[in-house]
Specification:
about 475 residues, alpha/beta, Aldehyde Dehydrogenase, Chain A, domain 1, Aldehyde Dehydrogenase, Chain A, domain 2, seven-stranded mixed beta sheet, binds nicotinamide-adenine-dinucleotide
């Protein structure tokens, strides 16, 4: 056996032990108490607040994300998520009454939410705090123990989260395991009660297979090609303003941003002009705190290869040393172009012209079901058609990405873009099982179901059920 094999075996053994001790801790029932959950969530909030500056510094080191942008899309949404959880956990954890049918009279029926057990949360890199800690909060508020594996690509945020959690919480309850593919593979060999994964559909399949091995409940938060449609009657100036901000924030490394724009042919020239104006007004740059670096060279090379210089309408320039790709618009894009063969996940916007809504919808449906979809239109009939005919995880009408900022809306994909949903009370549900319970007093009993079947009894049973 070589050294590498010995190290891998030792790591796997450690993970086995970690899961075992978390399961023992869960079985002690400590985490089930609502008071315990509130206390731990308050503790997590305090730790996050105390580490605010370190969090900004770490993410700046990873991909030059500014304090302002980190506060806007990571830090404050995380604090909101914890506050909502603390405020509502008592209500969420209560039994929920449902109607009882006559056949079970005089019984009561209710749902009993219960934690699933030991959770594994695997995070993605583009919003490293949010995509690791938001599911962690969901797991905690539902009363589970959790092993968190953040993405290894932003190394500074990953090790900061490990420090924040591992130095402050009992590893039987919460523990961060850092690592890349070998570590995640070893983690995925263990048996959990819940796996929550955020990342690409390709790795999602690996995770789903590992979960199937143990029949583990799984949530997959994946990606896809998110469309945005601009109809002839849309409020073009406002629509472009909203979409361009959402398209280039985080340098387009945002799973729910609009991947491409379908623009009606009669407004396309005006759309392009306004899009350029908006990009220039926003003045996207790291120095202006509203742009970030591409996460690594691999992604930089992948995204720049998608830019067909013959189709560049605006931008198309980049700097490999600084890992910066300037906001780019591609015009006259066809479905055969490289940029339409995969999720872009970078600051490149392909524009495709369409003539009829049927044609636009057909293009959208030629791809897998997207994580998000956006319609910019003034027509109620078009809005209805969009909602009825286009499958998507979450979306917006006359806006882009902002649905994520409403904690009352669930967040999640469908089909290739994922399964399951979370945020706010949906996170609680995501990490819980709802036991369906019939609770009957013993004083009265209808004898219909007992021995001695007859046609008449069957008819009565049917009426009562
Ligand atoms: P990724 O799938 O490469 O990595 C995600 C996680 O999986 C990381 O923690 C990584 O260490 C682990 N991993 C990678 N390869 C693995 C393997 N072979 N076996 C086991 N584990 C492995 O995704 P990414 O590059 O971090 O993120 C980009 C993708 O994630 C995009 O498709 C994007 O749309 C999607 N995404 C989705 C959401 C969402 O909420 N739905 C949010 C952000 C990103």
């Amino acid at each position: 056996m070589n050294t590498q094999q010995m190290n891998e075996d030792a790591f796997e053994l450690k993970m086995q032990q970690l899961v075992k001790s978390q399961r023992e801790y869960f079985n002690s029932n400590v985490t089930r108490s609502v008071e315990f959950r509130i206390e731990q969530l308050k503790k997590l909030k305090k730790i996050i607040v105390e580490h605010e500056n370190e969090m900004h510094e770490a993410i700046y080191k990873d991909f030059s994300k500014s304090k302002f942008e980190n506060q806007l899309i990571e830090y404050y949404p995380l604090l909101d998520e914890i506050e909502i959880a603390i405020k509502n956990v008592k209500k969420w954890a209560q039994h929920k009454s449902v109607k009882t049918n006559l056949l079970n009279f005089p019984g009561k029926s209710y749902l009993v939410p219960e934690p699933l057990g030991v959770s594994l949360v695997i995070g993605a890199w583009n919003l490293p705090y949010n995509l690791s800690l938001t599911p962690l909060i969901g797991s905690m508020v539902a009363g589970n123990t959790t092993i968190l594996k953040p993405s290894e690509l932003p190394t500074n945020t990953s090790s900061l989260m490990a420090k924040m959690i591992n130095e402050n919480f009992d590893s039987n309850y919460l523990h961060v395991v850092e690592g890349a593919i070998p570590e995640t593979t070893a983690l995925l060999k263990q048996r959990y009660d819940k796996i929550f994964f955020t990342g690409s559909p390709m790795v999602g399949k690996i995770v789903n297979k590992a979960a199937a091995e143990h029949l583990t409940n799984v949530t997959l938060e994946l990606g896809g090609k998110n469309p945005s449609i601009f109809t002839k009657d849309c409020a073009l100036k406002m629509s472009v303003k909203r979409m361009i901000w959402a398209r280039f924030i985080n340098s387009g490394q945002f799973c729910i941003t609009a991947d491409y724009a379908l623009v009606h042919k009669d407004i396309k020239e005006e759309f392009l002009k306004l899009a350029v104006q908006e990009i220039e007004k926003n003045n996207f740059s790291v120095e202006n705190s509203n742009f970030v670096q591409i996460i690594n060279e691999r992604n930089f090379d992948r995204v720049t290869k998608l830019i067909d210089q013959n189709k560049v309408y605006y931008g198309g320039t980049f700097d490999r040393e600084k890992r910066i790709i300037h906001p780019t618009i591609l015009n006259n894009v066809s479905l055969k172009d490289a940029v339409m063969q995969e999720e872009i996940f970078g600051p490149v916007l392909p524009v495709i012209e369409y003539e009829t809504l049927d044609e636009a919808f057909e293009i959208i449906k030629s791809f897998e079901k997207p994580l998000a979809a956006y319609l910019f239109s003034d027509s109620n009939a078009t809005k209805e058609r969009f909602l009825n005919e286009i499958p998507f995880g979450s979306g917006a009408i006359n806006d882009c990405v902002m649905q994520i900022s409403n904690p009352n809306l669930p967040f999640g994909g469908v089909g290739h873009s994922g399964m399951g949903r979370y945020h706010g009370k949906y996170s609680f549900e995501c990490f819980s099982h709802f036991k369906g319970v019939l609770d009957k007093p013993t004083a009265i009993e209808t004898n219909l179901k007992y021995y001695g079947y007859s046609e008449k009894r069957m008819k009565i049973m049917k009426l009562l059920s």
